[in-house]
Amino acid sequence: MKKDDIFEFYARLAADNPAPETELNYGNVYQLVVAVALSAQSTDIGVNKATRLLFEQVKTPQQMVDLGLDGLKEHIKTIGLYNNKAKNVIALSELLIADYGGEVPANRDELTKLPGVGRKTANVVMNCAFGAETFAVDTHIFRVGNRTGLAPGKTVLAVEKKLEKQTPSPFRVHAHHWLILHGRYICKARKPECWRCPVADLCRFKKKTPAPASAD
DNA sequence: CTCCCGATAT
DNA sequence: ATATCAGGAG
Hints:
This protein has 216 residues and is mostly helical. It has 2 domains: 3-19 and 136-208, Helix-hairpin-Helix base-excision DNA repair enzymes (C-terminal) (Endonuclease Iii, domain 2, Orthogonal Bundle); 29-130, Hypothetical protein, domain 2 (Endonuclease III, domain 1), CATH 1.10.340. It contains 11 helices and no strands. Helix 2 (29-38) packs antiparallel against helix 8 and helix 5 (69-76) packs across helix 6 (82-100). The two termini are 31 Å apart. The structure holds a DNA duplex (10 and 10 nucleotides).
C-alpha cells in the first residue's frame, strides 16, 4: 500500500477509537502474561470467562504454583489446548520465581524464554505493559494485513517486519490494537463487513459484500 | 510440518 | 458439520 494510504488507513481507525486497548482482563503484568498465554487459538471472551475467578485467587507466580497443575486445569478446562497451556503457565511461573525474583522481565528476549511465551505473546506484553512500539501479529493482523494490502507477507514475521518498517510514528504504539479490533469486528475471517468498513476504499480486497439487510 | 483442543458462529 | 478463535513447542 502507498505511503499516503497507509497514513490515511490508521488515521481513520484512530478517529473511530482514539485509545484502543486489549480486551483481555488482567490486574497486573504477571496476570497479563498468563492471560495472553491462555489466549492462543481461543477467544478473548472465553479467556476472560475463565480468568475472572482464577485471577481473584492467583495474583502472583507463587500463588499459581501453590494452586498447582490440576487446580489450574480445573479453572481453564473451558479453553482450547488447556492441557498444554496449564503446563506452560505452571512452568512459566516457576521460572519467574527461580530466575526473575517473581517479576516479569521488561524485555522481549527474556520473555520469550518463558514456556508458552513466543514472539507474539512477548510483543503483546511489551506493548500493553511497557508501552513498547511492538507489533504482535496474530491471526487477525495477519489476515487484515494480507487481505487489505496494508502489510502483505507470507509469514507472521514478514508481516511484523513490514509493519515495523512502514508504520508512521504517530500510530506505532496503538497500530496493532487498531488492526486486531478491525479484524475482530469488521474485517472478519468468515464474513467481512465491508459495507461498514471505514477503510474499504483503501482496500485491495474488492469483494463488495451485500448490505446487512440482504447479507444473510 | 504436526499436535494441542473447547466454545461459538456460520 | 466445519471454520475460527490475540500461538507455541517438538
